[in-house]
Amino acid sequence: xxxxxxxxxxxxxxxxxxxxxxxxxxxxxxxxxxxxxxxxxxxxxxxxxxxxxxxxxxxxxxxxxxxxxxxxxxxxxxxxxxxxxxxxxxxxxxxxxxxxxxxxxxxxxxxxxxxxxxxxxxxxxxxxxxxxxxxxxxxxxxxxxxxxxxxxxxxxxxxxxxxxxxxxxxxxxxxxxxxxxxxxxxxxxxxxxxxxxxxxxxxxxxxxxxxxxxxxxxxxxxxxxxxxxxxxxxxxxxxxxxxxxxxxxxxxxxxxxxxxxxxxxxxxxxx
Length: 271
Hints:
Blueprint: E1 6-8, H1 13-22, E2 26-29, H2 35-40, E3 48-51, E4 61-64, E5 67-71, H3 76-81, H4 83-88, H5 90-97, H6 102-105, H7 110-116, H8 123-130, E6 133-136, E7 140-142, H9 143-146, E8 161-167, E9 171-178, E10 185-193, E11 198-203, E12 211-212, H10 214-222, H11 247-263, E13 268-270
Parallel strand pairs: 1-3, 2-3, 9-13
Antiparallel strand pairs: 4-5, 5-8, 6-7, 6-8, 9-10, 10-11, 11-12
């Protein structure tokens, strides 16, 4: 049983911000897949829930030059099925299609996932590897400055993600070992190659959430071939360990996922 709360469905971003400012202990809600179970467990008891999914400012998927801009309220299913995303960023489209099950994909949103920053979520690896920009109600935040540890971000109180701007790389790939029940990543790697660099982001494995694997980036920058990763290993000291996979296994999985992501650029690989 949840505590009592007031539910608001604002019609604009400005109205949402106004409701937030006037409420005692408010929180925004998008898909609600993390917030509502937390409330049911009585680990959170906001006074007001402010729904964001129908705000017009958070909708749409467009291309602006060499960037794909995705509204924060776009569902995983809409990202996965968008022809524009499939054409310009096929690895991102396939990543979105691998999240949860059909019900989750049609309810959960990209903005909600990034605001929550679950350490096993998929999108953070794509945002970090692609060097995306998080557009909010007040500013723009580069991916390298956005993630701030497990379930923590650079978002300030009341700040709303409105869109994510993804640069289009030369190629990108995503490989994931997922929990068969939740579909969350036990370990996953997103590898993106641009004209100037290679970026590698690991999710599902790090004890401090999503992170870039700099040693792999350097090796792949010299030779973009999975053979360049031979001999590289992640420290188990920096990995999560739980009933599903211990830290050493996650370190091994993350390295294997990175190799597969390089070998299968443009595609999703499920281990």
